[in-house]
Every structure is written in structure tokens, then in C-alpha cells.
Amino acid sequence: MSEFLDLELQDGIRMPWNVIPGTKQETVNCVIPVSAIYTPLKPISDIPVLPYSPLRCRMCRSILNPFSIVDYVAKIWVCSFCFQRNQFPQHYSSISENNLPAELFPQYTTVEYISSTETGPIVPPVFIFVVDTCMIEEEIGYLKSALAQAVELLPDNSLVGFITFGTYVQVHELGFGLLPKSYVFKGTKEVTKEQILEQMCFFAGKKMPTTGVIAGTRDGLSSESISRFLLPASECEFVLNSVIEEIQKDPWPVPADQRASRCTGAALSVAANLLGVCVPGSGARIMAFVGGPSTEGPGPIVSKSLSEPIRSHKDLDKDSAPLYDKAVKFYDQIAKQLVHQGHVLDLFACAVDQVGVAEMKVAIEKTGGIVVLAESFGHSVFKDSLLRIFQSTDDNLGLSFNGILEINCSKDVKVQGIIGPCSSLEKSFVFRHCYWSRKH
Ligand SMILES: [Zn+2]
């Protein structure tokens, strides 16, 4: 047993069975199925870090590893998964039994590669705050002070965006230093990517391409147009603080017999689309601060009329919550979009009333986000949890964003599925973890 514990320390893998059944009958007899618990980014003290790209099998894309069979004379390696023979590239020509590349050392069963060619340039983490304003003044005050504290702790290089919402969605232009400026979207309707591109002047003065998906600087978006909304924290501290300072209760009057008009769904779809337009495929998280139920636009959980009570556990059990399925469907759509973009949704829901976590949770779970529930934004559960995310000495806050887990196995092994904070990328054995953390 101790040898398996040593392996766990080295590779972050634990298996209920350390022997794989050899026959079909043996497989059937296994009450607990053969599985592996894998801890990505497990802190391993002397993990080798190799400053180049991994060598992949030309057939199955598996990586050269200590179990591969190597012919040092012919300079060929045999893939241990599909038995394909692969020629070593030129820069491996000096390989010999006494001159092994690190990835072939028998003890290096887990290694890390730092490769700029496979991953592209390293993009700093992106945080986009989505803040509800349909709250009483006291709650807004608590939230403002918590946000101001969190902003202080943002890593200097991280990019920050800021959205507020109530009856309307407001995207604040942090790169416009002189006056507070924002783009306003109706809360009643879902906003598409195309509308974001057009209405937020991403192609001002230039012709917008009529075909294809536009995503990031690669597709013709100028970095100036992006940096109006997503700015390095070190450059927008002053503007960000004044935007937070100026947050006010949603100014639209609420009749006495109605709930506030809160367009949570529209605001989240604006945030998801803005990230999709500006920084797809890079580590970003939407941090939503919500103080009540969504009543307006896409994915409401209750109508505005106070005469209609909010759905209860019983209603959900009996399938008699009329808005539930539609709202779940909407958030499932958001989840798919965020997973595709590699982005995370976190929810800080602080209210005595329900805010609709049951409907929204699909988007948080699939992206590996965090949920914090408290009765008030003044409660220490909320304040401490928010600060804890940002308290770190590391520039990336000890977080790893946008991970992709690819599983290669030999013909005799069939992967049945995966459990954990990840979503399928709809290719066999490829899953995305939008969020891994060494902290949790
Ligand atoms: Zn192979």
C-alpha cells in the first residue's frame, strides 16, 4: 500500500483499485468500478518543469513518457497507448541511453511543460464585476465597501471590467478617464454578441466583418477597443473606485405592490458576451453580486407582482414552478457559452429572500465557479469569502484558469465518464476545467 501512497504524492492520483480486471467477469464482479481520483496541480515539491513543448504521438496525440519504448539507434519511440512508431525530431538527435531527455526519466511520471507555442502568450486573469443595484441603501453601502476592499487586492496586471444592473444593464467604460461613461442595454431582452460589437463601437470607423465569429484581437478587434472595458487593475484604480463610490440604488420607481425590476439574466448575458468578444479562451471570471430575485428579461424566477409568491421547495418538487424550466434552460445556455469560452461564473447572493440559485446553479457548477450565500452584504460570511479569493501573494491568486483535461488511454480501456468541476468539450475524453485552484 505504501508504494501507492508514494505514487499519490508524486502524481496526485488515487485509485480505489490498483489492479485492473483482466476479464469481463472480473469487471462485472467489481462493485466499485475502476476509477482514478486525480488532483490537477497538486503541489508537488520538486516537480520537474521542462521549458519546451511535449513530444506527441503522431497517431493518438499522447505524450512521450517514461513508459514509451525507445529505440536509441533508429531514433524512434513507440507510443505506449496506440503502439505507433514515431521518429524523434531533429532536436532529439543526441538522445542515447545515457543522455535522456527529462520526460523519459523513470521517476518523472508527472512533469510540467512550459511551452509558449502550444498555449500562446500568457494572458493575465480577467475579473468582471456584475453588480445588482436593486437593493436598499444600507445593502448597497455594505457592498460598495466590500468591493472597494476587493479592488485594492486585485493583482496589478489583472484586467478588470465593471457592470451594474437593475432595470437596465450598464457597462462602465473604465478606460474613459475624464467623465463617467457607460453603455446601457435594456434589461428586457437578451443581448447578442453582434449587438455588443455594434452598440459598443468595437468597429468604430471601420467596417465590421460580415461573416465569421469575431473573437478577440486575433479577429481584428483592436486592443484599444477592448481596453475601454477591460483595463489592467493598476491603470484603472481611480476610475474603478469612483464607479464603485457612485453606485446608487436603481432609480426606477417600484410600485408598492411590485418587486423591483431586476434583470440578472440580461446582465450576465452581457458580461458573458463581452468576455466572449474581448478575451475568449483566456482565464476570466464573472463575479456576480445579486441581492434578490430576477424579475425582468431572460431567465426570471418570479413575476414582478408581489401577489404571486416566489416558488417554494414544494413547487419545485411538484414541478409546479412555471418559470423554473425556462430559467434553467436560459442559464444552461449561458453555461455552454462560458464553458466554450473557458470562463467562470461566481455568484455572491446576499438577501433574506431567495435570489434563484436553483435556476442559476447550472452555470456556476459547469464552469467551476463559487457560490457564496449570506443574508446580507454586511455579513462576515460574504465579506470574508470575497477577500479570501483575493488574498494571495501570487499574481494569479493561486488560481488556475481555463484548464483542459485530455485523457488518452490504450485500446483495452474505455473511459465511461468524469465526475468533478468540469464540463465536456464534446470531443471524446476532452474536458474543460474552467477553474482549478490550489486553495480549495
Ligand atoms: Zn499513440
From TrEMBL:
As for membrane topology, the entry says: Peripheral membrane protein
Q: Quote the PANTHER family the UniProt record gives.
A: PROTEIN TRANSPORT PROTEIN SEC23 (PTHR11141:SF24)
Q: Where does the UniProt annotation locate this protein?
A: Cytoplasmic vesicle, COPII-coated vesicle membrane; Endoplasmic reticulum membrane
Location, primary (coarse class): membrane
Q: Where is the Sec23/Sec24 trunk domain?
A: 124-390
Tell me the protein's name.
Protein transport protein SEC23
Q: Where is the Zinc finger Sec23/Sec24-type domain?
A: 54-92
Role, per record? Component of the coat protein complex II (COPII) which promotes the formation of transport vesicles from the endoplasmic reticulum (ER). The coat has two main functions, the physical deformation of the endoplasmic reticulum membrane into vesicles and the selection of cargo molecules.
List keywords of the entry alphabetically.
Answer: Cytoplasm, Cytoplasmic vesicle, Endoplasmic reticulum, ER-Golgi transport, Membrane, Metal-binding, Protein transport, Transport, Zinc
The record's Gene Ontology cellular component field reads:
COPII vesicle coat; endoplasmic reticulum membrane
Report any Pfam family annotated for this entry.
Sec23_trunk
GO function terms (MF aspect): zinc ion binding
Q: Name one GO biological process term.
A: endoplasmic reticulum to Golgi vesicle-mediated transport
Family membership noted in the UniProt record? Belongs to the SEC23/SEC24 family. SEC23 subfamily.
In terms of InterPro entries, this protein maps to: Sec23, Sec23/24_trunk_dom, vWFA_dom_sf, Znf_Sec23_Sec24, Znf_Sec23_Sec24_sf
